[in-house]
Amino acid sequence: MPNLYLEAIEHARVYDVARETPLELAPALSGRLHNEILFKREDLQPVFSFKLRGAYNKIAHMDDADCARGVICASAGNHAQGVALSARKRGIRAVIVMPSTTPDIKVQSVKRLGGEVVLHGDSYSDASAHAQLLQQEQGLSFVHPYDDPLVIAGQGTIAEEMLRQTPRDLDAVFVPIGGGGLIAGMAVYLKQKSPHTRVIGVEPADSTAMYDSLQAGRRIILDQVGIFADGVAVKQVGEITFDLVRRYVDEVMLVDTDEICAAIKDIYEETRSIVEPAGALALAGMKNHIARHGTRGQTLACVNSGANMNFDRLRHVAERTEIGEQREALFAVTIPERPGAFFDFCRQIGRRGITEFNYRLSGRDEAHIFVGIRTAGPSEGDEIQAMLESHGYAVLNLRSNELAKLHVRHMVGGRSNMVRHEQLYRFEFPERPGALLDFLTKAAGRWNISLFHYRNQGAAYGRVLVGMEVPEDDRKAYQSFLDDLDYPYVDESQNSAYHLFL
Fold first, then answer.
1. DSSP one-letter code for 353
2. Sequence-ordered list of residues with C-beta below 8 angstroms from that of 272, at least 6 positions apart, any chain
C-alpha cells in the first residue's frame, strides 16, 4: 500500500490549478525558539488553502461520464472553494452544500468560482447529510474532503515538495489535523522517503477526533466540536485516514485557543500574512512541543494550511494572543473596601502595564477587582501572584478560566442581591437569524433570564452566557430543556469568577 500511495503522490495532477508553495525560513522565530523554523506556505494557494490539491486531483482523475453528471461536496469553506475552482477548470457543474451559518465571505468566494451554493443546516454534519441526499437524487459524483485515496494523494504532494525544497534533513514536520487527509498523505510519503523525520499531528483541545480515536484504538464520534479552528472541526475522522495515521504518524498533540492565537501573531510578524486558526495550528503545536521537550538545534517545519480568515474574528484573536503568549496575566484580586485601598494595590503593581481593570462596588467590607497585567513571560505572572499574596491580598489566577476570558472581562454591573436560584451556562448558538428566538421559544417563559451576555466573534457560532432563575424543585425540567435544546453548553454555576463578579 505505501508504494501505491507514493506512486499516486508522484503522479498527482495538482499543478494545473495549484502552485508549488515556498518552504520559508522564519528567522525571528528561529532565533527565539533556538531551532531552524520553516513555514510551508499553503496560505499562498489561489484559494488560500491546501485543499485545492486534493480536490483537483480527485476531479482530474474522473472519467467523462462522471464529469458529465457533475460533482457535489459539503464544506464550510476551504474544500468548497477547491472543488468549485477544480470543477471550473474541467468545465463541469459543481454543487456546494454549505451550512447556513457559513460567513458570507466564503459563500461569495464559492459563487465567484462558479459553484452552485446550497445553504442547509447549522453544521457541517447537517450540510453533509443534505449533500448525500442531493447526490442520490441528481446522480452527482461526491468529492469527499479527506477520506478518498486521490484526495489524500493530492495533499501528499506537499511533503514531496518539502523534501525537494530543503537541502538538509527535516527533524520533524508538524501538520494540522481535521479529518486526516493532509497528514495521512504527507506521513505516508515522508516515512518512505525520509523515515527519520518525525511526523507530528496537531489538533485543537476542543476538537480531538483523531487524538481520541488513537487513544481508543477505533474511530470515535465526538458529541460536539470546538468552533474556533473551524477548518479542522470534524466529529469523526476518515476510515482511510485513521488507518494511515495509525501506521505512519509518530504523535498527535493538542493545543488550546490561546496558543493558536499566539501562533497567528507569530506568523503575521514573520510573513505579514494573517492565517486562519486552523492555518496556525501546526505552529502552535511546534511551539508547545519545543517548550515541553526543550528542543534545540533542530530543523522543524510546519504547514501553514490556510488563510481564509474572517476580518471580524481578528478582534478575538488579538484579545487572546497576549494570554496565548503568556504575556498577560489575569487575576481576580480581593482588596479592602476603604479609601486608599485601590491606590495601595496599584503601588504594589508598580510600573507594570495594566491591560484591563474592572471593578464595581459590591459590598462595604471588601471589593473584588478583575485585573489584567502585561508580563514578559509565564514566570512573571506567577511572581506577581506571589507578591500580591505576600502583601495580604486574596488572589485567584484566571489564566485558564474560559468563562473569565470569554465573558466576565467584558461585563459590568457586578452581583445583584435580587437574583435567586441562578443557574449559569455557556452556550454556542449558531450564528444565524432566529437562533436566540429558537432558544427563547424552547424555554417558553418557564424561567426568568437573570443574566445574558453575547459578543459576535465573526465565527459560525456565537458564544453566549445565560443566567436563569431555576428553583431547586425545577432542576430536572431545566435539564430536560438543555438536552432538548441541541446547542453545546457548559455549566458554569460553580465557576469561581462567576461567584466573585457576577
1. P
2. none
Q: How far apart are CA 125 and CA 60, in angstroms?
A: 26
Q: How far apart are CA 185 and CA 252, in angstroms?
A: 15
pLDDT in tens, 349-361: 887 777 777 766 6
Domains of the chain: 2-49+149-322 (3.40.50.1100), 51-142 (3.40.50.1100), 326-400 (3.30.70.260), 411-501 (3.40.1020.10)
Between CA 331 and CA 342, with CA 337 as vertex, the angle to 5 degrees is 55
Tell me the C-alpha distance between 134 and 501, whole Å: 50
Sequence-separated (6 or more) residues with CB below 8 Å from residue 291: none
Joined grid coordinates for residue 379: 514566570
d(CA 97, CA 50) in angstroms, rounded, equals: 20
Which segments of 42-163 are extended strands (E)? Answer: 71-74, 94-98, 116-119, 141-142
- The secondary structure element, H or E, covering residue 124 is helix 124-138
HSE-CB at 120 with a 13 A cutoff on CA atoms is 19
Residue where the block lists cell 424552547: 442
pLDDT in tens, 477-496: 899 888 888 788 899 999 98
Distance, in Å, from the CA atom of 187 to the CA atom of 270, rounded to the nearest integer, reads 26
Label residue 459 by pLDDT band (50, 70, 90). Answer: low
The residue written with cell numbers 466564503 in the block is: 106
- Among all residues, which ones are annotated catalytic? 51, 305
For residue 227, give the C-alpha cell: 468552533
Is residue 65 within 8 A of residue 71, CB to CB? The reply is no
Nearest of 186, 228, 232 to residue 209 by alpha carbon: 232
With H, G, I as helix, E, B as strand and everything else as coil, classify residue 226: coil
**Beta carbons within 10 angstroms of residue 38's beta carbon:** 24
CB 220 within 8 A of CB 207: no
- Of 116, 108, 180, 177, which is closest to residue 147 (Cα–Cα)? 180
Contact indicator for 90, 113 with CB cutoff of 8 Å: no
